[in-house]
Amino acid sequence: MSKTPLKHKKLFLFDIDGTIAVEDTLYEGSAALLDYITNTGGKSYFITNNSTKSSKDYVEKFRRAFHLETSEEQFITSGYMTIRFLKEHYASDKIYVLGTASFINELRKNNLHITETAEDHIACAVVAYDSELNYHKLIQACKVLSTTEIPFYATNPDLCCPVDFGFIPDCGAICNMIADSVGKRPVYLGKPNPSVVDLCLSLSGFTRPETLVVGDRLYTDIACGINGGVDTCVVFTGEARPEHMADTPYQADYCFDNIKELFSHLT
Hints:
Blueprint: E1 11-14, E2 21-22, E3 25-26, H1 30-39, E4 43-48, H2 55-66, E5 75-77, H3 78-89, E6 94-98, H4 101-109, E7 113-115, E8 122-127, H5 135-147, E9 152-154, E10 160-163, E11 166-169, H6 171-182, E12 187-188, H7 195-204, E13 211-215, H8 218-228, E14 231-235, E15 254-256, H9 259-266
Parallel strand pairs: 1-4, 1-13, 4-5, 6-7, 6-8, 8-9, 9-12, 13-14, 14-15
Antiparallel strand pairs: 2-3, 10-11
Helix pairs in contact: 5-6
């Protein structure tokens, strides 16, 4: 499949952390690119594997930290994809969840039956990125998965999360601790699951040739675009580095040092 020229792109699916921003710092060129997309009749969605924030939280953060106006519809988080999946398949069942208090509250607000402890009649287990992680939570997760044959899901496979000084463990690293203990690996519901791309196409009305996934991580962002059948662009402001492109199975259609350089090739 040949890539579509950048100037023909209308739907942009951006990762956030390490791609357009890090923590409360917006990268140079990000605001200008987002304005350009809107002003030329395009649409931006933010497809993040960070499950600790809801879409409402992100709207507030973009306004407070970045001075950007967005809508809740534009944020497709791994938490949101997980909620959609659980409501479709486990709406009336008891679900064990390891995650932040905010994420668990969001699940309960969606009328899902959540427990944080090992108990009877649990239908599935879900692990999310948890900045409030402690050993008791890990023990409960291991107990649930060791004593039952229930399905094991997780929000995202990211091993590390970018912060201002470097990286900290993400959901994938937490899952590896659990998986190495219980001998079971999760099914991931966020990127690189192609359902993320499918949802954005459905919401926007744009076509696959008009779509570009932009991210800094090869095995989630770029893999998501490849799995979803759309063109991809990697920026080297987060995890991926130019030398990684030599032997990765996740070859991006476009590679740029940063968002500003991507913007310069669109105008």
